[in-house]
Specification:
The protein is of the alpha/beta class. The chain is built from 7 helices and 6 strands. The chain has 2 domains: about 180 residues, Aminopeptidase (3-Layer(aba) Sandwich); about 40 residues, no CATH class.
């Protein structure tokens, strides 16, 4: 399965920031990086980015990347805002968007993503919504856009700045994708469940009778010795 993870906007995008100055892209790219790491744990999943730390990638270029790669899924990461973003307000919560035509797979997947985001973060559930966003309209595959909190809400803005919250968002989205598509995790070495065995050797003899004598002495002392014959090395 091929997935494009899209960190919305860019460092140079005007106006996209919290009231106290954190740019939205800082949050978006962090979640995108964590999400990529989580998705790479899944078997057969390849992850691509449509954004760049060097420039604000135009929306048309982002969707073209996804379409030319013929990926199966497009996930766009965002942080929300209410009003002009110049002062704090009480609007809060998480919402997930799909295209207004409501493609069935997008509907089903977005509901799973929204549910996992709410479970992981504990934030207000604003539900799954439809929109005519460019990245939802122009992509030829299932596309979902996640708004992970409001930059204009003081409490959520502080959360958006933390690595813990960013990781929660990434893990929630990854878990939803893994669950919905039933993708197995990559096989890893499974530690042995056999109990550990520790040995203490008290002697080594060339003659068996010498080993037996020591064993007898140990028995008299209350121990339960074992005589093991070591085969010659070839």
């Amino acid at each position: 399965m091929k997935i494009v993870v899209d960190a919305g906007h860019g460092y140079q995008t005007k106006g996209k920031q919290t009231v106290d100055g954190m740019k939205e892209y800082e949050f978006n790219r962090a979640v995108a990086n964590y999400l990529k790491a989580e998705l790479k744990k899944l078997k057969g999943v390849k992850v691509f980015f449509s954004h760049s730390d060097d420039k604000d990638v135009p929306l048309k270029e982002r969707t073209t990347i996804a379409n030319e790669l013929k990926v199966d899924l497009f996930i766009s990461i965002h942080a929300n805002a209410y009003g002009y973003g110049r002062k704090w307000n009480s609007v809060s919560g998480i919402e997930t968007y799909i295209y207004k035509s409501r493609p069935k797979e997008a509907v089903d997947l977005s509901n799973v993503i929204q549910r996992e985001l709410i479970v992981q973060t504990g934030r207000k559930n604003r539900g799954v919504k439809t929109a005519d966003f460019y990245v939802l309209r122009k992509t030829k595959m299932t596309a979902v856009l996640c708004e992970c909190g409001f930059m204009t809400n003081k409490e959520e803005a502080q959360l958006l700045k933390t690595e813990a919250y960013r990781k929660k968002c990434a893990k929630a989205i990854a878990k939803a994708i893994q669950t919905y598509y039933q993708i197995p995790f990559k096989t890893e070495a499974i530690p042995s469940t056999s109990p550990s065995l520790y040995k203490v050797q008290l002697g080594a003899f060339q003659q068996k009778e010498n080993a037996e004598k020591l064993a007898e002495q140990l028995q008299k002392l209350g121990y339960d010795p074992i005589i093991v014959k070591q085969q010659d090395s070839i």
